[in-house]
Queue: 3 jobs
Job 1
Amino acid sequence: MEALTLLQNLAGKETVRRNLKQVALAALEDYHSSMPLICSIFSEPEILLRHREGFTQRNESPYAANEAVEAYLMKEINTGRISDKLHPRAVADILLGSCFQRAFQLNFLGKEESLEEGDEFVNRILDTLFPGQS
């Protein structure tokens, strides 16, 4: 997701919530569109094994998206824009994991989500993670 690359340069700019919202909305779209491919990889052990080997050869990780959000949040903690009591990896896991689960559910049910519905979903997650912040 391009949003993750851009996120690293947004530390100290806009609001943390707005920056994370852009990532979450991009994650919803990306996960939704790639869910059939993701599921097919897990349907065949040989394909999954080759996929794992490819990740290893390219020095990639399935945790890369979460790590990018975590790194961004660490920057924001270091600048004092968010509390150092916040656990950056947990926030990343909750935010992106929620988006992944939502994409799975929508695909499973054969439903499309409007931009407004996606926006409402992301706002509920961010309201929970960052109560009282806009």
Note: Residues 79 and 89 are 17 Å apart (CA to CA).
Job 2
Amino acid sequence: MQSSGNIILITGGGSGIGAALAHEFHAAGNQVIIAGRRQAALDAVAAAHPGMVAMTLDMADPAGIQTFADRLIADFPGLNAVLLNAGIMVAEEKIDLAIAEATIATNFLGPIRLAHALLPHLEAQAAATILTVSSGLAFVPLAATPTYCATKAAIHSWSLSMRAQLEDSSVELIEIVPPGVQTDLMPGHADNDQMMPLTDFISETMALLRQQPTPAEIHVERVKFLSEATKRGEFDPVFAALNRH
């Protein structure tokens, strides 16, 4: 991925990892469009970055995604990168169908629908990038958030397959694999000293994204405890440690 000169859409750009990456891409000389459900949060991020654009998008709304994509391409015909970052993480007691369905719609179907709407445009660019965001929990799940972990495992698998399908096209696919990060994704995360500080995660992630060629998967050192557990033959003890009460 080229580090500057892109026109990049970042979903979930109003807070957390999305807002922090939007800041970094903007500072590196990219045109950044941030999208999300909360217009006030988006506007606050954009106001701190002259030239950044904020657009409302609900990743759980199929019709809205297509309308959004059509408007985005019309307004930014040079769009050549999309970071599919928006997501929700909610604890579930056994099976909570409302939480499960909302999580799947936002975290998995949403990125697929948006990628589908934008892919013909991206394939027409000389060079384009789709960035997905999975999680270390895609590799070792947290029992308290079963559907969240399942959606992230699905995003990881989908990324592997789509990368192979796009191999002979102008579109590269990069998967970012975060550990637990100090954001407001779930109550208490921002102040949890077991989570990786957001500034550290962003700094290490951007350094990896600037590498040429860019790695197909972005694993900061902190996430490898989870993402490489199976490779080390340690899945069972890592799962037990993660889910110890």
Note: DSSP finds eight helices and seven strands in the chain.
Job 3
Amino acid sequence: MARFFVSSRELEAEQIFLTGENAQHMKVLRLKPGEEVLLCDGAGREARCVLEGEGLRVLERRASAAEAAVAVSVYLAFPKADKLEHVIQKATELGAVEIVAFPTSRCVSRPDEKSLQKKLDRWQKIALSAAGQSGRGVIPKVLVLGSYAEALRRAAQADLGLLFYENEHAVTLKMALSEKPYRSVALLTGPEGGLSEEEVAQAREAGLTVCTLGRRILRCETAPLCALSAVMYDAGEF
């Protein structure tokens, strides 16, 4: 069934007319009267519709069945090249509700203010495309924070805030996930050069649990996706 993202206001109408890129996409698909499509508002609500003439008649409105019961936010320090784009795409497919980028002392690359809005627009489009491809009912938000301290404060608001550090050997991810029940999780990983000992100490002070992802060193674009997959498994999503 073809899937289109529309605004929440459009989703509430009894008859819906697609415009812009959605209208063009519908023409490319050559949909015929009587065929059904799925409209999503990108915030967890969807409507099953049937094509009638040039419009769509709503048959059923419902909560999206594709969303995870646990809300997972992926926080990663700015990586080099297009690694962030890769994480945005794959984290969206895996079910993350937001992807948050932030600077650390060892970040080699970070966008300047002049180009940031253009990059944010591109990153959000990647999330939109990945959400549509994977059948999501929610389009994850892509955010950029101005400091590491701000990332820690925000991540600490989740039921479970986890920071992954290659020199941590005592606390495993499995142990951290078994500490207490959770409905929201924040996963925080560092850049190519890793996090400094001072930054790890700041995370502990902020209330995050510092844990390991195993004996192997994972690349900065692999670690968040590994952790996200493990959380989804633990939450019963796989």
Note: The chain has two domains: 2-63, 71-234.
